Amino acid sequence: MSDALDKAEAAVREASTDTAAVQLAFAAMELAKLATQQQAQQPSQQHACEHQHKQGRSAGEWIGIACAVCVGSVGLAFASLAIAIAACCATGCFLILRSIWQSTQKGK
User: Fold this and answer.
1) Residue 7 and residue 50: Cα distance in Å, rounded?
2) 71 lies in a domain?
3) Is residue 69 part of a domain?
4) Closest by alpha carbon to 78, among 86, 67, 88?
């Protein structure tokens, strides 16, 4: 890259007799040449890479994941509610059975 900068500086020095606008134009042309050379070299570097790159998720996949999380969360909430109701029912049954047990023990 320093070689390209040296070329650009040399072009600017050569254009010292020209106006500043022409000098800037020459420098811009050198930088454009450098950019096209670098772009031409990049595909050859990419082909040297043997492994495959994993593509990112699309918007549809993210929406599907979000819907699955929402449905799972609602299901988990209903399951927690069902467990709480079952625990209350079991406690009520236990208290009723204990009361019946105590009343039968007093009668003996």
Assistant:
1) 35
2) no
3) no
4) 86
Q: Tell whether 49 is covered by a domain.
A: no
The tally of domains found in the chain comes to 2
**Helix (H, G, I), strand (E, B), or coil: what is residue 68?**
helix
- Which two tokens mark 57? 């998720």
Residues 6+ apart with CB under 8 A from 7: 30, 34
Supply the range of the domain harboring residue 9.
1-42
Which segments in the chain show pLDDT lower than 70?
Answer: 1-2, 4-5, 8, 11-26, 40-49, 108
17 assigned to some structural domain: yes
φ and ψ at residue 107, rounded to 5 degrees: -75, -15
Secondary structure (H, E, C), 16-36: HHCCHHHHHHHHHHHHHHHHH
pTM of the shown model? 0.42
